[in-house]
Structure prediction request, 65 residues.
Amino acid sequence: MSKKNVYKSSYEGLEKIVDELKSGDVEIDELDVKIKKALEYIKTCKDVLKGQELKVSEILKEVEA
Prediction:
């Protein structure tokens, strides 16, 4: 799976969990599982964004040179 698909999938998964939490559809017994999964999605998104930031920085350095 490409990084774009990983980011998109993680972001959509996070949105789904947030929507479930907002609507009150999460049972108290599932709450810890949902929160842990949300944290995994957040970490994945952050990692992809950091990688893209580094790539863009390198491109900008080349342009400036």
Q: What stands out?
A: The chain has a mean pLDDT of 93. Residues 3-64 form one domain. The chain has one domain: 3-64.
